[in-house]
Inverse folding.
């Protein structure tokens, strides 16, 4: 009897352990390996400079596993406190934040953190939470509530000013509404009105933001200023060709023509040294992770899980699109790191918490399927 | 959740990733080559290294055009925005003139972004010391050493060697057409005149190209390729520096020209045109003061009289006309003429008079040359007629470019009917060729004009029994090690006049020096000379009169003398013209005699002694010690200049130099 019980417990334990999505975990670990190689090159083969990156990756991986092990309903219950915490921190940034390049984005709490990163998670979490109570079809009131939840931190972040992160936070929240069934016509009407009011928005943009958009349209107009980043990035990518210049042999990267080569412009290292083959592999990894995320979304068992999984997946792929699009010159220069390849930081931790939530959602479906 | 949302999400992900695949394929595959070039351009910097310009040496290896080290202070155009304040700062350390500043701005206009633009060149030692000890004041300035052309004999070779100057826009166009513009930097030197221009491509060498790898901040991180500069070749001339100095000194302050040739090779021994100028003045652009002085000099020092100055040949024309008439059978050895002191055209009372109204009596062609009978040659001019003169005198190169290796040679003028008709097209009375024109041409007056080089060349053709050797200054081209790279391609043509005919003329010219118009010049010579005096009228004299109303020195006749020696085995042929020198025998003649004596008689040791103070070309040879070698101080008459080990005279010369 005792033995039977023990055997059952062991069986239960293995069932618990084996029901995680190891494919997703494996894909993420693949990115970690790529990260190691690329960062070694980007940091000019100085191991000590990679210390923080390794710590962030390791810590974030552990956090992901921890989050994955938390029941999704438990995670759901964190939504409101986390949102409030985010708002407080953003408000603090506006008052006592560290000012860099004319923008207050960081808080110095022993380590420098960027509270707006936290919003990328807390905003969709609260929106999904708010929409998760009703089983029936959602009404306009629910969506308006969702927009209000998004709008408050968005406005605060835009005031820092950090329009790039603001838009990403907005997108994360919006994806939740999208998966919750925000009517197409509302989206279309909003899109049209945004396009129509774009001249007005242009007027509200800061000079440096206007500048970024202008230099994107014509990088040669400012070859030594903002356009320099784009031009040098494009040269680095193009010079890689099909097979690349060889690992550790990218001239653009190693002769310092690429600014921020280990952070936002890290894809240039890959593209220059491993060529289109390298870019193809990493894009394939991103695609597989996204497909895995969408699978979890598709199979999720309740509205909170579905909307949250969808938002996390699409946000992830949106970062990839914006970063790689920006470096290759089809998007404005926005400070978005390349997920899990750029040098580790707050963004890595937030991303991995997101994957932890994804894993938790998937685990619940497999381990406690709803009858 | 509606299915459409999931489908839309899949579409979003797939399109997004597809766009990135497409964008990166576009950059990495279709734009790859173009972007790779940009990446290479990013990290490669080209640093040009200057070749050392080949020198020019005389037949004894004495350096006539040299290179010296000069210190300059320069700035990059990108740092030159507040140049006026830099100027005022610099003025506390060095002497900076308004002309220096002007030159700076002129150069700046021609410079590319990464060319150093020189603010002041030829800094003194004190100035270099001032600048280097205060270099913290001038972080953007660069003090560097470079080599520059230097002409140790200043004005002696200004008309033969010429000078170099900075590359101008016109030069650039020409270099571009020749496809060698790449071999020059923006503010480089290039041969502007004379041999410097003629043999530019040989002396220039080729610039070296060092391609270095730099990082984004311009720091050098490696060497990609290095093509070292190749120094230019040294030109060895046929010129004899000692003789050149002697000739120049003999002409003194008088205007005129002296050209001496080796009649057996065509090599130029002496090439003097006076007045001259200091060729060093033009190197970095001549200063306005110097320019004004040269321009306002009534002697026109910039005119290269030896090849561009044309003068009526006067009586020096006679030997060539005599030779032509013998060739055509218009005259022969037995022809006799009764000289009554003047000549009149049939049916005219105008008397073409002998100079000095001399009456020579019955003479043949030899005596006519020896005594320079004008009457004889007036008649000969008439008997020959313009057409026959026009056909035969070109045998001696008259009226034609000699083809000497110098730019801008004048062809002189051998007149013809066609020439006259064209020249006086608007004047119906002058248009046709008149018998009187032939008469005056017979004594070398009238329309014909020749350069001193042409007369020397014609003389050398006579001297070498009718073999015409194209005149040339270049003997051979040497590389740094003294190895001969190429030799001037000598070219000679035998003219159709027979040796017997030429011998008659030469006999006449020899008698000139013994009993004729040049007997004072020829008196006591230890070798045989054949010569001819000439006096070219500057202004037409009044009818039947020997008195000119023009009495100023500028109206005095030009004095000519042509000669060669020794007659049996001619070693030197010469033409001397002294402007407004008066009688040929009195002004030009003594110069010829002294040059001949100096060339043919001077003892070897004396010759070596006179040249020992000058720098000689030293071939670069790692195996030989750096002390002066015997070969370097080879004596003057030893034609084998370098690497001829031994020779007693040479040893003496070495001792003299110590």
């Amino acid at each position: 009897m005792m033995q039977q019980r023990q055997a059952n417990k062991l069986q239960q334990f293995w069932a618990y352990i084996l029901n995680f999505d190891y494919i997703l975990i494996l894909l993420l670990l693949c990115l970690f390996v790529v990260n190691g190689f690329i960062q070694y090159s980007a940091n000019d083969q100085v191991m000590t400079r990679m210390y923080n990156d390794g710590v962030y990756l390791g810590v974030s991986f552990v956090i992901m596993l921890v989050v994955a092990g938390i029941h999704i309903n438990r995670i759901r219950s964190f939504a409101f406190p986390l949102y409030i915490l985010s708002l407080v921190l953003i408000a603090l940034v506006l008052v006592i934040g560290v000012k860099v390049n004319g923008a207050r984005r960081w808080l110095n709490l022993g380590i420098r953190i960027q509270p707006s990163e936290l919003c990328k998670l807390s905003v969709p979490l609260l929106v999904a939470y708010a929409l998760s109570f009703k089983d029936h079809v959602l009404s306009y009131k629910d969506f308006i509530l969702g927009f209000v939840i998004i709008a408050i931190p968005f406005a605060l972040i835009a005031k820092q000013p950090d329009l790039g992160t603001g838009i990403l936070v907005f997108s994360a929240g919006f994806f939740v509404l999208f998966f919750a069934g925000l009517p197409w016509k509302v989206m279309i009407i909003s899109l049209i009105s945004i396009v129509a009011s774009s001249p007005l928005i242009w007027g509200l943009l800061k000079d440096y933001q206007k500048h970024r958009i202008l230099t994107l349209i014509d990088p040669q107009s400012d070859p030594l200023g903002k356009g320099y980043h784009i031009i040098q990035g494009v040269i680095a990518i193009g010079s890689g060709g099909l097979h690349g210049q060889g690992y550790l042999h990218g001239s653009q990267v190693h002769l310092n023509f690429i600014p921020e080569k280990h952070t936002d412009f890290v894809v240039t290292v890959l593209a220059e040294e491993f060529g289109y083959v390298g870019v193809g592999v990493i894009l394939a990894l991103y695609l597989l992770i996204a497909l895995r995320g969408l699978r979890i979304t598709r199979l999720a068992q309740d509205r909170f899980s579905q909307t949250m999984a969808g938002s996390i997946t699409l946000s992830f792929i949106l970062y990839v699109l914006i970063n790689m699009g920006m470096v290759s010159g089809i998007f404005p220069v926005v400070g978005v790191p390349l997920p899990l390849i750029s040098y580790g930081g707050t963004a890595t931790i937030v991303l991995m918490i997101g994957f932890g939530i994804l894993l938790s959602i998937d685990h619940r479906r497999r381990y406690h399927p709803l009858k | 959740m509606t299915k459409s949302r999931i489908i839309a999400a899949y579409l979003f992900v797939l399109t997004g990733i597809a766009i990135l695949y497409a964008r990166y394929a576009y950059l990495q595959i279709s734009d790859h080559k173009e972007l790779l070039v940009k990446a290479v351009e990013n990290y490669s910097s080209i640093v040009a290294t200057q070749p050392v310009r080949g020198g020019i040496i005389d037949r004894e290896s004495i350096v006539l055009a040299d290179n010296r080290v000069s210190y300059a202070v320069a700035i990059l155009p990108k740092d030159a925005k507040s140049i006026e304040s830099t100027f005022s700062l610099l003025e506390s350390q060095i002497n900076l003139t308004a002309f220096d500043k002007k030159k700076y701005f002129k150069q700046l206009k021609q410079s590319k972004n990464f060319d150093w633009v020189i603010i002041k060149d030829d800094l003194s030692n004190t100035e270099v010391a001032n600048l280097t000890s205060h270099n913290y004041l001038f972080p953007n300035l660069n003090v560097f050493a470079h080599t520059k052309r230097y002409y140790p004999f200043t004005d002696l070779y200004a008309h033969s060697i010429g000078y170099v100057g900075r590359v101008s826009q016109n030069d650039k166009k020409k270099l571009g057409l020749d496809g060698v513009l790449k071999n020059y930097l923006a503010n480089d030197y290039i041969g502007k005149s004379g041999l410097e221009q003629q043999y530019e491509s040989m002396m220039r060498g080729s610039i070296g190209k060092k391609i270095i790898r730099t990082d984004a901040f311009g720091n050098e991180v490696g060497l990609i390729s290095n093509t070292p500069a190749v120094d230019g070749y040294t030109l060895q001339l046929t010129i004899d520096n000692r003789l050149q100095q002697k000739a120049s000194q003999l002409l003194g302050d008088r205007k005129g020209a002296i050209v001496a040739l080796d009649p057996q090779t065509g090599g130029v021994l002496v090439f003097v045109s006076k007045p001259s100028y200091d060729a060093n003045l033009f190197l970095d652009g001549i200063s306005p003061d110097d320019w004004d002085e040269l321009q306002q000099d009534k002697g026109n020092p910039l005119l290269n009289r030896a090849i561009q100055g044309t003068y009526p040949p006067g009586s020096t024309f006679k030997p060539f006309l005599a030779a032509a008439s013998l060739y055509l059978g218009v005259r022969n050895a037995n022809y006799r003429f009764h000289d009554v002191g003047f000549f009149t055209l049939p049916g005219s009372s105008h008397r073409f008079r002998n100079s000095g109204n001399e009456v020579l009596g019955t003479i043949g062609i030899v005596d006519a040359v020896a005594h320079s009978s004008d009457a004889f040659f007036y008649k000969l001019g008439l008997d020959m007629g313009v057409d026959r003169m026009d056909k035969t005198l070109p045998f001696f190169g008259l009226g034609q470019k000699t083809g000497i290796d110098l730019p801008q040679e004048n062809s002189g003028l051998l007149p013809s009917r066609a020439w006259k008709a064209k020249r006086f097209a608007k004047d119906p009375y002058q248009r046709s060729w008149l018998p009187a024109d032939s008469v005056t041409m017979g004594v070398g007056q009238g329309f014909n004009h020749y350069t001193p080089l042409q007369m020397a060349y014609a003389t050398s053709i006579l001297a070498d029994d009718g073999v015409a050797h194209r005149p040339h200054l270049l003997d051979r081209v040497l590389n740094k090690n003294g190895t001969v790279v190429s030799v001037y391609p000598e070219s000679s043509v035998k003219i159709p006049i027979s040796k017997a005919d030429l011998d008659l003329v030469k006999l006449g010219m020899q008698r000139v020096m013994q009993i004729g118009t040049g007997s004072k010049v020829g008196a006591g010579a230890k070798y045989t000379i054949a010569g001819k005096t000439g006096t070219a009228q500057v202004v037409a004299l009044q009818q039947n009169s020997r008195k000119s109303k023009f009495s100023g020195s500028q109206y005095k006749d030009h004095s000519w003398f042509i000669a060669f020696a020794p007659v049996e085995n001619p070693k030197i042929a010469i033409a001397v013209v002294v402007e407004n020198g008066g009688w040929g025998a009195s002004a030009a003649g003594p110069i010829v005699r002294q040059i001949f004596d100096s060339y043919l008689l001077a003892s070897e040791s004396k010759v070596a002694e006179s040249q020992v103070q000058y720098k000689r070309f030293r071939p670069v040879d790692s195996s030989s010690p750096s002390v002066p070698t015997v070969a370097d101080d080879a004596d003057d008459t030893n034609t084998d200049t370098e690497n001829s080990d031994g020779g007693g005279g040479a040893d003496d010369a070495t001792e003299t130099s110590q």
